[in-house]
Design goal:
This protein is of the alpha+beta class and 730 residues long. The protein is 49% helix and 12% strand. A hairpin with a 5-residue loop joins strand 11 (283-288) and strand 12.
Length: 730
């Protein structure tokens, strides 16, 4: 009996577990495992508490003496919850999280055993950095790295089995001080956009002293039975199916999205939500997604740094909790061909410390002008730095999803809706270079009548746009499901900060020439609308007509990761990030190399896996069936039956034989193409070779013939679980 047969039999006997979920209100468990400021108040001295809050709210450093008091209080709280170890929890460029656990337990000089957690251990740790990508920043023998506490992201307790560990969110830097993670640059970008946005806000409201970027992510994922996944080596090693014939029923009936949540998955959802609430992750929604076995969850908006931490933590929680339910969560952007892949829409906005969402339309001419300022500046930022924004979501796995008629194209464009398009057109045509008093009155009164209270777009949301305005936020829809939101958010906040800085400089220059403030602002806004209008698109991004139109407009369309990543190391990118204090040139070059290496390795693994499956699963099963057909035809001939009576068998035999040979030949050729690519020294050239000469040349071709064999070969001989089993058996 094959592993597939065993797995299919297993599914029908799996009972739906009852999740260990507290029936009380969510509020009773929310932040239960988080060292919040409320908790800190209970366990810290007044001095330590004030130092911690000042650090969180004002970015002030905590001195080492006070850090010792904070560490002591944190340990007391953690030990009260059964914690024995602590770790610095960080986000290296591998795309996962990292942690090295240390015990509170230690020995004094006289051999006395004590529990201890010093301030130095809270502030800094030195994990072995030799296993993390470095992009040429350091040699292997320079293996030391430093993790440094981020007080703005609260520590939390992770529970795995019967063990509990105190996790301290940190940044991760090299021995020589370069950023080796996603958090450090993000925090710099947050500060950059804060400074730039406060400066612009002060044109309208002098009370604004801080602007915080916010993020609400939408996490899409697939849930598959564990036994079925284990019977698929490609799902285990690559997170996606490299082969698989499309079943008769996929998503064409659209009955999954509008159906009820399957009981077994519902139990899993409740379980991981419960764990998430304990960790302070404010999940709000859960629902089916379009593809069979696909689902989504989304939280309430949070400050962007916290939101990124929570998303990375959630993915870990989901993966671990799924095991309790004998399920597997697939976060790959395209685990199954022919049905929708998974994204992670990043809903971004800017909030002031006076309680204003800067991307929410206002109710007065003044607040509307402020809204228009930030709205148009964001569009201008996306227009000017579209290539860099595209590079921020480039990955081997996202390439399978982008432009696949269920996700936005690789062309970066902005959707704003009919209503706001008209508003921008009005501003463009009515605001000239010169104003008199009558014009100013028109600006303040008549234009305000045109937009008395800017209404959200009342047309359908454009699902084909990678960057869309959705009423009070921008939705960056091209981000992939597995992505760390930190990178696209670093880029987005940096480009907006840069644009706002330039905007303020232009406005100030006009004011210095004697122009009134409001008029100066409108003049620059009008200029930005004109210079960035080509990025605005309201139509169908999936259509070939848009691709042709985008080319006419001069918009880029980088369909593959190796080429898209070039934007990271362009002169424009280097100037952007260095001038805003986000990345040095060396850090950018390193990240570019790391992303290229990740691409190469992922394509390499998939290519090797395809060869393995073809050689050890597909061809042997197909040959067995081929022999059955041969024997059948041979016996019919021996029985002297007319050839027309076994014509069908002969045709089937020829088809099977042809596909077997094609699989064998193409796998062999792909191996040779890999050998050629592996000998290329230059990382970029090697990545391009892997994309063009390996992936593009052979992946679809081999898959075509394998999927044809799956359609033809006796079902009982096929060893890999089929799509109809993976997607519909729960």
């Amino acid at each position: 009996m094959s592993l597939r047969t065993e797995a299919v039999k297993h599914v029908s006997h799996v009972a739906t577990p009852t999740p260990n979920v507290n029936a009380h209100k969510i509020t009773t468990i929310f932040n239960e495992s988080v060292f919040t400021l409320k908790t800190a108040r209970e366990f810290l001295s007044e001095e330590a508490y004030k130092s911690l809050t000042a650090s969180i709210r004002g970015g002030k450093k905590i001195d080492r003496q006070v850090a010792g008091q904070i560490a002591s209080g944190m340990r007391a709280w953690a030990e009260g919850k059964g914690v024995t170890h602590y770790t610095h929890w960080f986000q290296p460029l591998t795309g996962a999280t990292a942690e090295k656990h240390d015990s509170f337990f230690t020995l004094k000089g006289d051999g006395t055993a004590i529990e201890e957690f010093e301030g130095a251990a809270l502030i800094q740790q030195e994990p072995d950095a030799s296993s993390f990508p470095n992009g040429g920043l350091r040699a292997t023998f320079e293996a030391r790295g430093y993790s440094a506490w981020d007080p703005s992201s609260p520590p939390f307790i992770i529970e795995i089995g019967n063990g509990k560990t105190l996790c301290i969110p940190t940044i991760f830097i090299s021995y020589t001080g370069e950023s080796l993670d996603y958090k450090a640059p993000l925090m710099k970008a947050v500060e950059a956009v804060n400074k730039a946005a406060v400066n612009v806000c002060n044109y309208f409201d002098k009370n604004v002293t801080k602007v915080t970027p916010t993020l609400g992510w939408e996490q899409e994922y697939f849930v598959i039975d564990e036994a079925l996944v284990n019977a698929r080596p490609d799902l285990v090693q690559c997170g996606r199916t490299v082969f698989g014939f499309t079943p008769a029923k996929g998503q064409q009936l659209e009955d999954h999205y509008f159906g009820s949540i399957p009981e077994r998955v519902y139990a899993f959802m409740r379980d991981f939500e419960n764990e998430s609430y304990k960790l302070g992750i404010p999940l709000r929604t859960r629902h089916n997604e379009v593809a069979p076995a696909q689902f989504e969850c989304a939280p309430i908006f949070e400050e962007v740094n916290i939101a990124v931490d929570h998303n990375i933590l959630l993915m870990d929680v989901m993966t671990r909790v799924a095991k309790r339910h004998r399920l597997v969560v697939l976060l790959h952007e395209k685990p199954f061909a022919g049905i929708n892949g998974s994204g992670k829409h990043n809903n971004w906005s800017l909030a002031t410390d006076t309680g204003i969402n800067l991307l929410a339309p206002g109710k007065t001419p003044k607040t509307n002008l402020m809204f228009l300022t930030f709205f148009v500046n964001t569009i201008k930022a996306v227009h000017d730095y579209a290539d860099i924004l595209r590079a921020s979501i480039a990955s081997a796995s996202n390439d399978f999803r982008l432009g696949a008629n269920e996700a936005p194209p690789a062309i970066i464009s902005v959707f704003i809706g009919d209503y706001l398009t008209k508003v921008l057109n009005d501003v463009e045509t009515r605001v000239g270079n010169k104003f008199d008093e009558q014009d100013e009155a028109i600006l303040k009164l008549d234009l305000h009548r045109s937009i008395p209270e800017l209404m959200i777009d009342n047309t359908d949301r454009n699902r084909t746009s990678p960057f869309a305005f959705t009423g009070n936020k921008f939705e960056f829809r091209a981000v992939g499901s597995t992505a760390n939101c930190g990178h696209p958010m670093t880029v987005l906040n940096t480009i907006v900060a840069d644009t706002l800085t330039k905007f303020a400089a232009e406005v100030d220059a006009l004011i210095a020439k004697g122009e009134k403030k409001e008029i100066a602002i409108m003049q620059v806004i009008q200029k930005y609308i004109v210079s960035s209008k080509k990025i605005l698109f309201e139509g169908d991004g999936y259509s070939e007509a848009w691709h042709q139109e985008a080319e006419k407009r001069g918009l880029s369309n980088f369909k593959t990761t190796p080429v898209a990543l070039d934007a990271m190391v362009s002169d424009k990118a280097k100037n952007l990030f260095s001038e805003n204090g986000i990345y040095t040139h060396g850090e950018l070059e390193a990240r570019h190399e790391i992303e290229l290496e990740k691409y190469i390795k992922k394509v390499q693994i998939e290519a090797r896996l395809m060869g393995d499956l073809a050689t050890n699963h597909i061809i042997p099963a197909s040959i067995k069936y081929q022999n059955v057909l041969l024997q059948n035809v041979s016996l019919l001939r021996e029985a002297s039956l007319p050839e027309n009576l076994y014509k069908g068998q002969m045709t089937l035999l020829k088809e099977v034989s042809t596909h077997i040979q094609e699989v064998y030949d193409n796998v062999h050729e792909m191996v040779e193409a890999r050998k050629v690519a592996n000998n290329i020294e230059d990382t970029r050239a090697k990545a391009i070779a892997y994309e063009a000469q390996v992936k593009a040349q052979y992946f679809d071709k081999i898959r075509y013939h394998v999927d044809k064999l799956e359609e033809l070969v006796d079902d009982e001989l096929w060893t890999l679980p089929k799509y109809r089993e993976l997607l519909f058996l729960r």
